[in-house]
Specification:
Elements (H helix, E strand, L loop, with lengths): L1 H22 L6 H24 L2 H26 L5 H26 L22 E4 L1 H6 L1 H7 L5 E6 H11 L4 H19 L4 E6 L9 H12 L2 E4 L2 H9 L4 E3 H7 L9 E9 L5 E5 L5 E5 L8 E12 L2 E8 L18
Helix pairs in contact: 1-2, 3-4, 7-8
Length: 346
């Protein structure tokens, strides 16, 4: 397909250069006419490549705007022709107003075309790959996080993964940052996208060209896009999650999924943990499970750097995750046989 397009462009360029050379439209100067024809062909090809990148809504908006502009220009030209005055001045005024109305109508139609609801046309003008029923829109934070790739490869994220162009721009800006930490995060996000594209599974990748020029924040653009295609936002951003829910947009939060998949621990169970550091309260020790869950252990300060068996006393579930509270029995009695044993790594 790429070869065919390049060949067609080459034939078009050659045709205009040949037409200029043999027809000699500029004062019979063949070579100068050929150069002008080549320059005109290059400008047309550049214009064609820009048009190819535009979204369907932008093209429809520009077409409608052009029609309105032509109609307005025709009406203005008729009114001017009915007036008395210098014919040269009337011709100049008619041409100027025609160009003005045509240009303004074209630009306004192209910009406002993003607000068109193509679904009202019965699905005839729907962009390829934007099925409403299974559109999952990835935000910047969840792409950088990377866990979405693992989830998608297992088949739990089926359908179409929509990656907006404005999210790609934000990732590129982060990857080009002077801050090394931000730069590494941005490059990780781009690597995750490449991984998603290379893997074949129950999902498809769609790069959406839709944009909302009047909306500045990326999070708000995501919400507008989700409302437009009736999709869901996949994120791990707590604030975006809340704002989207207030706007009536469905959200899949990776952090909530991770919390839901953590092992269930009940009070009274025995866990084997590695006490990593001192806790905030007196005689407390702190350990962490393999999934990052914090375990606060009473009476375990002197056991820092050791593996011990603790008895779970309570479990606290917060919006940030889960915290487990336990107690170390240091009276010398052997620990009971654990029903649920989890080892925390250092």
């Amino acid at each position: 397909m790429q070869f065919d397009i390049s060949l067609i462009r080459f034939v078009f360029f050659t045709a205009l250069v040949s037409a200029g050379f043999f027809l000699k439209p500029i004062e019979g100067r063949a070579w100068f006419s050929a150069v002008v024809g080549g320059a005109l062909a290059v400008l047309i090809i550049i214009f064609e490549t820009r048009i190819r990148k535009a979204s369907l809504k932008t093209l429809i908006g520009a077409a409608v705007g052009s029609i309105i502009g032509i109609a307005a220009a025709t009406l203005i030209a008729w009114i001017i022709s009915m007036q008395q005055g210098d014919p040269s001045f009337k011709s100049f005024l008619t041409l100027t107003l025609t160009l003005l109305t045509g240009y303004v109508s074209l630009m306004v139609g192209a910009v406002k075309g993003d607000y068109l609801d193509l679904s009202a046309l019965g699905g005839i003008f729907v962009e390829k790959g934007t099925s409403k029923a299974h559109s999952l829109i990835l935000d910047t934070s969840v792409i950088i996080d990377g866990r979405v790739a693992d989830i998608a490869e297992t088949g739990f994220l089926a359908g179409i993964l929509v990656i907006p162009q404005f999210v790609l721009r934000e990732l590129q800006q982060i990857a080009d940052s002077a801050d090394s930490i931000k730069r590494n995060r941005g490059r990780r996000g781009l690597d995750i996208l490449q991984r998603l594209q290379k893997k074949k599974g129950s999902y498809e990748i769609h790069i959406s060209e839709a944009d909302f020029p009047d909306v500045r924040e990326v999070d708000h653009k995501l919400i507008e896009l989700a409302k437009q295609i009736e999709g869901k936002i996949v994120t791990n951003d707590f604030n975006l999650n809340k704002v989207a829910q207030l706007r009536g947009v469905a959200v899949l939060n990776i952090n909530e999924l991770a919390n839901a998949l953590k092992p269930v621990v009940l009070p009274g169970e025995i866990m084997r943990v590695f006490v990593l550091k001192e806790g905030k309260e007196y005689n407390q020790g702190v350990a962490y499970l393999d999934d990052g869950t914090m375990v606060v252990v009473d009476n375990a300060r002197r056991m820092i750097g050791k593996n011990i068996d603790v008895s779970v006393t309570s479990v606290l579930q917060t919006t940030a995750g889960k915290m487990i509270f336990g107690r170390f029995n240091d009276d010398g009695r052997p620990a009971p046989s654990p029903r649920h044993t989890t080892t925390a790594t250092q």
